[in-house]
Amino acid sequence: MPDLVHTSDARERTARSARRKVAWRVLPLLFLLYVVAYLDRANISFAKLRMQEDLSDWFSETVFGVGVALFFVGYMFFEVPGALLVEHWSARKWFARILVSWGLCSMAMALVETPAQFYAVRFLLGLAEAGFFPGVIVYFTHWFPRPDRARAMAVMLFGIPVSLALGARVSAVLLDQTWFDLKGWQWLFLIEGAPAVLLGVALPWLLTDRPRDAKWLTDDERAWLEGELEAERKATAAVGTVSLREALRTRNVWLLALALFATNIAGYIFVFWLATVVKGLLLAAGRGAGATEVLNWTGLVYLCGFVGVWVSGWSSDRTGERRWHCIAGQVGAAVFLTLAMVPGQRWEVVFAWLCLTGFFAMFWFTPFWVLPTMTLTSSAAAVSIAVINMCGNIAGALGSPIVGALKDAGHADRASMTLVAVCFVVGAVFVGLVKVPKRNA
Predict the structure, then answer these.
(1) Are residues 309 and 160 in contact, defined by beta-carbon separation less than 8 angstroms?
(2) What is the pLDDT of residues 242-274, one digit of tens each?
(3) Where in the chain are the domains?
(4) What's the pTM value of the predicted model, to 2 decimals?
(5) Residue 274 and residue 51: Cα distance in Å, rounded?
(6) Is 21-211 a domain of CATH 2.60.40.10?
């Protein structure tokens, strides 16, 4: 008996040590990569404040909206192939290729002079970045046993509000630069795109494909981790796989897909148009509305989003409840955004509503991505998450062109933000219809 106890204790110590080393070695790097990825995706919303002034003969609100949409069109092309390449080839080589190509595409935005060039570069940026997020999802299955995977994903998702808050502040500084006769918005793309290229060159030496290749783990740690992951793969294979056709016949898959579709229309409009809305609200309040002022205020709103991600992750993990946390985020964002659009309020009041909107606009997505694993079998969840995420990317391609057309037609920001609020509420309704087993409710 003492030998068995000793063996059990030793195995437990090995497990704790392996999990700790993986978390500290893998997550900080992936967090950094996601910060860079989301910034290069969204920094067009910051650059827009000056691009419209310098390229006013063609850079309309509609052109901006279509350019935002084309990113997501390009993204959908490589989403599934990217995940397969990580599974069957090499994550570090594939991610390195992605980083270098999307960094170069982001930097190429500094050279656009026509709508066609703007559209082409945005499409290529989406094409270049496409394999990253689904590839990371697969990469997590190579390193994190199932009980650790959701928390690992939450750490990476912190990169969204961090990249937006930090990016707004850095972009405010860059937009005021005119080094070597280049415009500030050109420097924004050149400097913010460069880290992706540098990280891509370094990544083959920074990232490890599989635990068996990790020299920074001991032999016992590698054996434990490989054994845990292999047992999970065998358990999943024993249950059987679910085809795409079977996933599409599942009620909860469609409800979650429609929920993400509606919510992402709202969320992506909020991300890509917030700086424009803040500028309009500052002008209406008779305050300074230069690019620096606008982005400083915008960055504070995104900083509240960081708090929202943290609070929702902590609260939903502590209680084990996911659906109502998700609904609270969606409805809260709709309510406070609507309050921010009420005319005649002092700027301080409007900004308080916007901060609460930012908090709830990023409160919902951590609990949302746990719902597929709670409401579907493990084999169905893998296929279904791909379907659900695809609907989310389609939403990204639809919302911004609608807003651009509304603004060019003479409608005020209130019209587009009303659309955002309505989509948040519609998403909440679909989440409310999702059936969660009582043991998970």
Answers:
(1) yes
(2) 666 776 778 888 999 999 999 999 999 999 999
(3) 21-211, 243-441
(4) 0.88
(5) 16
(6) no
